[in-house]
Design brief:
This protein has 273 residues and is mostly helical. It has one domain. It is built from 10 helices and 2 strands. It has helices spanning 6-27, 32-42, 50-78, 84-105, 110-129, 144-161, 166-175, 180-203, 221-242, 247-270, and strands spanning 215-216, 219-220. A two-stranded antiparallel sheet has the order 1-2. Helix 4 runs parallel beside helix 8 (180-203), helix 6 packs across helix 8 (180-203) and helix 7 (166-175) runs antiparallel to helix 8 (180-203).
């Protein structure tokens, strides 16, 4: 690999790490919603083939979310913002869904992954940005078989997007009556339940091409080394900011950010090449 390509990619990864950590703690999304689009763009300078950049970005993002989710979850737990009964009910579905989603994602085309990422992020952005705080589709969060189906779907889609789960689970929980700050805290914990089995699935993947940078399966080792420590460092700051913001401000911030990211991803997916 041309070492002159190392510096811009490394700097992009480090900058992404610091920002994604704040976003992880602030929104309970694990930071992947930032990491994936930035990595997908930066990897073109690292010599990763175009048809595999999204796969590597998604897999690497999910791997970096493991330590970040631990840091963010601890910060939210210290503030009593995690719904532990819900976490225990939804946990098995999250674990199984994430593993299944990563195994499927390793086999599909890059456009499928970017389309899933863009469509889901856009739908979530609309819900969170609009004044729909009182909109509910049920009186309580489902448990039992319905809860496992809901959490399994969230885990599978999140693993295919390279995100920790809060991006989907937070709006789902708020639609089902969970307060936004408690949903954000619980979403941070779900990030851990999704990132661990999801990462294992991507580590087991066997891409048919050799990458110029060291990888295990689809996970870039350099990306993990550069991104994980920085994002873990800044996640507690994001958690403190989350509890200092109003409910409406937090929802709008979440929605506006996702709208920008989703629009860019969908443009890259459907624009002529």
């Amino acid at each position: 690999m041309d070492l002159s390509a190392l510096w811009p990619v490394a700097l992009a990864m480090l900058g992404t790490a610091l920002f994604s950590g704040v976003v992880a703690g602030l929104l309970g999304v694990g930071g992947g919603i930032v990491i994936v689009p930035v990595l997908e763009y930066a990897l073109q300078f690292a010599g990763i083939p175009a048809e595999w950049r999204m796969h590597v970005a998604v897999a690497t993002s999910l791997a970096t979310i493991v330590p970040t989710s631990i840091s963010s979850s601890r910060a939210h737990h210290s503030r009593g913002a995690i719904d532990w009964p819900l976490a225990k009910s939804w946990g098995p579905g999250m674990l199984f869904g994430a593993l299944a989603g990563s195994l499927v994602a390793a086999q599909v085309q890059a456009r499928v992954l970017s389309a899933v990422f863009g469509v889901v992020a856009l739908a979530v952005a609309v819900k969170m940005f609009l004044p729909l705080d009182h909109l509910r589709i049920a009186s309580h969060v489902p448990v039992g078989a319905a809860g496992l189906a809901t959490s399994g779907t969230i885990g599978a889609v999140s693993a295919m997007m390279g995100i920790g789960g809060g991006t989907i689970s937070v709006p789902v929980m708020t639609l089902l009556g969970e307060p936004i700050h408690r949903a954000v805290g619980t979403g941070a914990l779900f990030g851990l339940l999704i990132s661990v089995p999801g990462t294992l699935g991507y580590l087991w993947a066997t891409p048919p091409v050799a990458f110029p940078w060291p990888t295990v399966g689809l996970v870039s080792l350099l990306g993990v080394v550069l991104i994980a420590p920085g994002s873990m460092l800044t996640a507690p700051l994001g958690a403190r900011l989350a509890h200092a913001l109003s409910k409406r401000a937090l929802s709008r911030l979440f929605g506006a950010f996702l709208f920008v990211v989703a629009t860019r991803m969908l443009y890259r997916t459907f624009a002529p090449h």
